[in-house]
Write a structure and sequence with these properties.
The protein is of the alpha/beta class and 333 residues long. It has 14 helices and six strands. The longest helix has 48 residues. It starts with 11 loop residues before the first helix and ends in a 10-residue tail after the last helix.
């Protein structure tokens, strides 16, 4: 029904409402939508919701599947690396610490086992797989300070000269050994390839223990698995195994230096040094020596550059000299 209340200036929606009011009908907001169209829209909306839900469920399922696959792959890798590690090998650092505590206590007297004095006996013993550590005497009384010394301890001029000593105790020859010891890939240092750092055992041990496998098995996110894998891949696992399976423990303990004497540029000054060698297979102490090192005999140029290395090589020659002495005769009845 036409009405004067509706003008051309009104919006279509307002005009429809006024017209409906005059006619006694209720006007729907906006344009009218046919029932069939409304049903189609409802179906489309419902289908969209269902499709989104299905996509989310599939994505979540795929994510969980990928996470489980990555976790299983890392766990298999960890188990494969640790498969040949024996329980007693995991206890090696604790067993070594017990020996180090013993050797760092009060010093009784020098000791060289008789088999070390036999012709070729010392050299044959040194050729066995060995784990090595050197540090201040005070650092061997606790596991935390032992780890600190192990971290700062490398296969050095002492180890090199112990395994391949110079022909004569001359500064020129000792200095050449000290220089060679600075380069792990030098021809001389290849003679020490059987010597592992104790630090490698400390670094690799956590990744070889059952607790690490449990940690991987319980990882719940791809981010966590990625972090665990990165740490595992960076660990020196082969070197750790060599250290844990060593047959000998070689240790050098530096006693406090003479503070009244000036220190060289590398910190070397007169001080006593303890050397220990233990057969880990038989738990027998093969060698215990205490010697004095003093860089004052070295030329000024040599002291400035290689004081510690030259003293270390000279110390190794002292050890060789000690093993060449005849064993004490057996006591009579």
């Amino acid at each position: 029904m036409p009405t004067l209340l509706v003008t051309k200036k009104m919006s279509p929606e307002l005009a429809a409402r006024v017209q409906a009011s005059v006619a006694g009908k209720r006007a729907l907001p906006g344009a009218r939508v046919a029932p069939r169209t409304r049903s189609l829209l409802r179906i489309v909306a419902f289908s969209t919701i269902v499709a989104c839900g299905a996509w989310f469920a599939l994505s979540l399922q795929r994510f969980k599947r990928d996470t489980a696959s990555q976790r299983a792959a890392l766990l298999a890798q960890v188990q494969d690396v640790a498969a040949d590690v024996q329980p007693e090998e995991l206890r090696t650092p604790t067993a070594l610490h017990a020996w180090l505590l013993r050797l760092s206590g009060s010093y009784p007297e020098d000791l060289v086992a008789d088999e070390m004095r036999l012709p070729g006996g010392f050299e044959a013993t040194l050729a066995r797989p060995t784990v090595y550590v050197r540090g201040p005497l005070a650092n061997f009384d606790s596991m935390s300070t032992l780890q600190e010394s192990a971290q700062n301890s490398f296969v050095d001029a002492f180890v090199l000269c112990l395994n391949k000593p110079p022909k004569e105790r001359k500064e020129k020859l000792l200095r050449a050994k000290a220089r060679a010891a600075l380069f792990a890939d030098s021809d001389d240092m290849k003679r020490t390839a059987h010597v592992a750092r104790l630090h490698d055992a400390f670094l690799g041990l956590p990744f070889l223990a059952p607790d690490w496998q449990d940690r991987v098995a319980q990882a719940s996110s791809q981010e966590e698995i990625a972090k665990l894998k990165k740490r595992f891949d960076r660990a020196p696992l082969d070197a750790a195994k060599r250290a844990l399976r060593a047959k000998l423990l070689l240790v050098v303990m530096d006693e406090p230096g003479d503070k009244s004497a000036p220190a060289e540029l590398d910190g070397e000054r007169p001080h006593a040094v303890r050397v220990g060698l233990v057969d880990l297979s038989t738990q027998k102490l093969l060698l215990r020596l205490r010697r004095q090192v003093d860089p004052s005999w070295i030329s000024a140029a040599g002291r400035a550059e290689f004081a510690v290395g030259i003293d270390s090589c000279a110390l190794a020659m002292d050890v060789h000299a000690a093993t060449r002495k005849e064993p004490a005769p057996d006591a009579g009845p």
